Amino acid sequence: MPTLPTRPFGRTGESLPALGLGGGFVGFAGFDRSVETVRHALGLGVRYFDTSVMYRSGASQAILGEALAAPAAPHYLATKIGYFREARHFRSVEAMHVQLRENLRLLRRDSVDLLQVHEADWDNWWSDRSDVRPGRLLDPEASLNFAHAPVIQFLREAKARGLCRHIGVTGNHARHLGRVLQEVDGLDAVLVAYNYTPLNVTAREHILPVATAKGLAVIVAGLFTFVHTLPEGWATEGSYLGPRSDAQLAALQKLQRESGLPMAELALRFVAADERLSTVLAGACQPAEVDQNVASFRRGPLPADLHAAVEAIARQF
């Protein structure tokens, strides 16, 4: 069976292929096609699968549950606890256990390998508020009781009960997520999206140093999101895109045309070259997209001059 290069998954003792499949299914091709895509990835040696209650309104978990119900190969499955419109649905340990039971039902299993907090960089997880506003980031300078927050108590309890083997946090804003990592001990992994791409490498500054010091596995995602266009309204707090983002994207697209490589391959090979990253999640909605991602990953790092050119663009952030 095909294999992919592996890397240590933090200090968990696991060694996993460094290319994983994200379960956001952006460009959704339907339930059956998505199941086929997951199974195709497994057949090509992908072993890390990531999903969330927040992806496709929970349908992502059902897709992974169907696709991996009788897998032909061992795999590692990560899911997330999410926030909802009302704080009572996620601001207590009991409410999160209710959510986890539903997650496991959709995933058709009694436990998962990694249980994470969905977007732990939002204030919702750390402050008691009746109004839930996903757009409100935590204040990196505020005095917050991270270690005793309900969600951290829940993660530790779920792990102690054997409902997951490892626990972690995820987020989309490296500086804010880095504060969580600094304050919370006992985590096994961190996933950061949109902050390690050809346009933004701030995860190197705010995530990698503390994750390395604490022995956490580092997963990155969202590396394809901005390389084709800059969605309006996504420059939240300057954490995704900087004031030079239009110029950065134009320079990247010019470089891509000159290189002759597909943009997804350029982005994937640039990011995956950093061996401090445990897993790079590459999204796919069709088996052919999985083929492209696996083939790109197998080609290894970009030529040195091309990598340096992408690096120069990323550092303009």
UniProtKB/TrEMBL annotation:
Protein name: Pyridoxal 4-dehydrogenase
Annotated GO CC locations: cytosol
Record's keyword terms, sorted: Oxidoreductase
Organism of derivation: Lacunisphaera limnophila
GO molecular function: pyridoxal 4-dehydrogenase activity
Domain NADP-dependent oxidoreductase: 22-314
Classification via Pfam families: Aldo_ket_red (PF00248)
E.C. numbers: 1.1.1.107
